[in-house]
């Protein structure tokens, strides 16, 4: 089974291909691991999309996730994570990056809006300088309480008593 999807774009040539879709529309950028997609992710992505016209989601590569989260992560391989994200109505484009931060890809696509979840204060959001320098917006959006991939994995492994 192929995990190809028209919303999934390779990083090579991404700015040029985005320019064709962008055409005066407000580009919103967010990024993350999106290891086990949960309602908190879906809520955040829908609110990111509401900030503009075109939502680009950049997903950490498997190697990047391992460096950030440890050797047991990601649970879900990159191709599968991207495929699932591409099927969400609010997501317009999905790509990946292998660096520890999205700074390089942000410098390539130069979005109008950069949004992250509320666990990232605006002053710590990587790339805020690039977006602000162009007059764009940088947003830290509140998280939907009670959802966490790390906590879900702990529940699966029986390391917490929380049900649900």
Task: Name the features.
164 residues, alpha/beta, Rossmann fold, 7 helices
Global Rg:
16 Å
Helix segment count? 7
State the total count of DSSP E strands. Answer: 5
Q: Which strand order does the major sheet show?
A: 3-2-1-4-5
The end-to-end distance, rounded to whole angstroms, is 31 Å
Low-confidence stretches: none
How do the helices and strands follow one another from N- to C-terminus? HEHEHHEHEHEH
Helix coverage percent of residues? 25-40%
For the biggest sheet, the summary is: 5 strands, parallel
- What would you call the shape? globular
Spell out the CATH superfamily.
HUPs
Mean pLDDT: 93
* CATH architecture descriptor text: 3-Layer(aba) Sandwich
Beta-strand content estimate = 15-25%
Given helix and strand content, the structural type is alpha/beta
CATH topology: Rossmann fold
- What's the CATH class, please? Alpha Beta
Structure report:
This protein has 164 residues and is α/β, with parallel strands linked by helices. The protein has one domain: Rossmann fold, CATH 3.40.50.620. The protein has seven helices and five strands. β4, α6 and β5 form a beta-alpha-beta unit. It is globular.
Summarize this, please?
The chain is of the alpha/beta class. Helices cover about 35% and strands about 15% of the residues. The protein has a single domain (about 25-155), classed as HUPs (Rossmann fold, 3-Layer(aba) Sandwich).
